[in-house]
Write a structure and sequence with these properties.
The chain is an all-alpha fold. Helices cover 66% and strands 0% of the residues. It has 2 domains: 80 residues, no CATH class; 187 residues, Hypothetical protein af1432.
Length: 310
């Protein structure tokens, strides 16, 4: 009786390996193309948003110009009036015009509200409003903290404008909003992985084709946001020694970390070295402890604002 020998699988030839690599490459590119097609379904922000952003760098910007820009977009104008009359600000008498809103809250505060409305407006979907509200809450808190940090950074010759810092904090997670909007099933898997393994959302995203910084960078480019804002969106999880890291992106990363410490959701904060960030940014000793003492007030204000806007 003959002995049945197991045939050894032939070694793959160079041609077969090459073909296999091409198939994998085509598959990845096909998935990337499909993902981009989904992302392109996200509406662009109101045109007035880019004009409002330009006011941040315009020393001669006027209240009248801001009023004109807000009135040019009925959606922004209506939401600004809604927010000004909300429990967040408690006006004694109802405010019915943009000019009165500016007089009541001031130029800078109305500018911030208009930016929030413009940034969040592309992501309003009733079926995922709870998920978007959570991210909006986190983003608003991050914006407030980034603005507070920027005042300390500017004292150390980094010179980032408070309004610009606020805007960057506000838009830093637009990529995550896009994932929730366009890839809802993936988002659920990312959240489950983060929670079950007790890791940050950013760490959980590494198992998927795109992470939120890559998508955020793509959106920032599509929305024609200025380069310094786009850089911070793309690199707010980059190591401090990365060549792409800037004081602004580092400030957002520290603010993002502190925002997670607010406990706005159940996810783990990204792992960062607080002391290294304080040294890199030149923040005065004790200021981070002061910031932490303010987190309760920031949490309430950001929560109230997110509820009003979504």
């Amino acid at each position: 009786m003959g002995i049945l020998l197991h045939r050894q699988a032939p070694m793959a030839t160079t041609t077969q390996v090459s073909l296999s690599s091409k198939v994998i490459d085509i598959t990845v590119r096909s998935r990337q193309k499909a993902a981009l097609e989904r992302l392109e379904s996200i509406p662009t922000p109101p045109l007035a948003l880019n004009e409002i952003i330009k006011l941040l760098n315009d020393a001669d910007s006027s209240v009248l110009r801001l009023e004109e820009l807000i009135l040019s977009e009925p959606g922004i104008a209506a939401m600004v009036i809604k927010v000004v009359n909300s429990p967040v600000y408690y006006p004694v008498h109802p405010i019915e015009t943009i000019s009165r809103a500016i007089m009541f809250l001031g130029f800078d505060e109305i500018k911030k509200i208009a930016m929030k409305v413009g940034v969040l407006s592309p992501f309003k979907q009733k079926d995922i409003v709870q998920e978007l509200s959570m991210i909006a809450n986190h983003s608003i808190a991050t914006a407030m903290i980034t603005a507070m940090l920027s005042e300390q950074i500017s004292q150390n010759n980094y010179g980032e404008d408070r309004s610009l810092a606020y805007l960057v904090g506000l838009v830093h997670d637009i990529g995550r909003m896009a994932i929730v909007t366009c890839f809802t099933d993936n988002w659920k898997k990312i959240r489950y992985k983060a929670k079950s393994e007790n890791i940050s959302l950013f760490a959980a995203e590494k198992s998927f084709l795109f992470n939120h910084t890559l998508i955020g960078n793509w959106l920032a480019d599509r929305w024609q946001l200025p380069g310094n804002i786009k850089n911070a969106v793309a690199n707010h999880h980059a190591p401090l020694n990365d060549s792409a890291t800037t004081p602004l992106s580092a400030a957002v990363q520290l603010a993002d970390y502190l925002s997670y410490k607010l406990g706005l959701d159940e996810h783990t904060a990204p792992d960062i070295n607080e002391e290294a960030f304080v040294l890199y940014l030149g923040i005065p000793a004790g200021f981070l402890d002061y910031m932490k003492s303010q987190l309760g007030a920031i949490k309430k204000l950001s929560s109230d604002m997110a509820k009003t806007m979504l």
